[in-house]
Design brief:
alpha/beta, seven-stranded mixed sheet, 30% helix
């Protein structure tokens, strides 16, 4: 298949993740109707052909098939999106970052937790947390393709659950020229929108596990942005409720209502 300049790829195995990928791709089509979108999946016949420009078959699917598929992109400049995303604004000049950097991705959330501080073989300063691998912008050149292959190999050999643990080590050790995206391009905490002023940022890619709650037996299927924001607010309130009664200065600083 002929290589193209830029496009978006999704990787989805199993009915539930394919369904989420369709939802995300439709949101992308609404704001970027001319941008090519490819899907990698284990059941290509189950996908509507009018939504994607190309559908690629995953021959040996596994829990992190995305690590195998990212390097198979046909685009010179690729934006990989996890299935639990919604695109709410045009991507604008996002792809232009790859004229200066080889890869771009955003910090993960929960950066004060051991989960996100974890590396495989290397400890790093607090200011160098894991990067979230659900939104990744990258070039298709030899250095980046080698990096992606090495990431997939190291993850398979490590036997860990989260691919970001391996990615953190590789970015810390290596010399890949990567850029940290502003949060609006991988918005993991939608509740920050309650604090943003009109000219702070343009929410562009929403990325929330609340979109998968129905797959885990908790809550109904979320299809609309307003439903997603309400679900995020409810989850935040529940988490802060678990902190009430403590006398933690940081807790009071972040959320003074937590001890009321």
């Amino acid at each position: 298949m002929k290589a193209m300049d830029k496009g978006v790829i999704y990787v989805a195995t199993g009915h539930d993740y394919r369904d989420l990928a369709l939802q995300s791709a439709r949101s992308l089509r609404q704001v970027e109707p001319g941008l090519p979108i490819d899907l990698f999946t284990d059941a290509p016949d189950a996908v509507p052909r009018d939504l994607f420009d190309a559908v690629h078959t995953i021959e040996n699917p596994h829990r992190r098939s995305k690590l195998d598929c990212m390097g198979q992109t046909r685009f010179e400049r690729t934006l990989y999106l996890d299935c639990d995303t919604l695109v709410t604004a045009p991507l604008g000049d996002l792809f232009d970052l790859l004229g200066r950097f080889e890869m771009a991705l955003a910090h993960d959330v929960r950066r004060a937790s051991d989960l996100i501080r974890e590396g495989l073989d290397h400890g790093t300063p607090y200011a160098f947390p894991q990067m979230n691998s659900g939104v990744v912008l990258y070039r298709r050149d030899k250095r980046v393709m080698d990096f992606l292959r090495d990431w997939a190999r190291r993850f398979a050999e490590a036997g860990v659950v989260r691919d970001q643990v391996v990615l953190k080590d590789m970015l810390w050790q290596g010399d890949l020229a990567f850029y940290v995206l502003p949060p609006e391009f991988n918005l993991r905490r939608l509740t920050v929108l309650d604090a943003w002023e009109p000219e702070d940022a343009i929410p562009t890619i929403l990325h929330s596990h609340r979109l998968m709650d129905h797959m885990r037996g908790s809550g109904t299927r979320i299809t609309q942005v307003d439903e997603l924001i309400e679900a995020e607010r409810a989850a935040l309130s529940e988490e802060w409720a678990g902190r009430r009664g403590g006398d933690d200065a940081l807790t009071r600083l972040i959320n003074p209502r937590a001890n009321r």
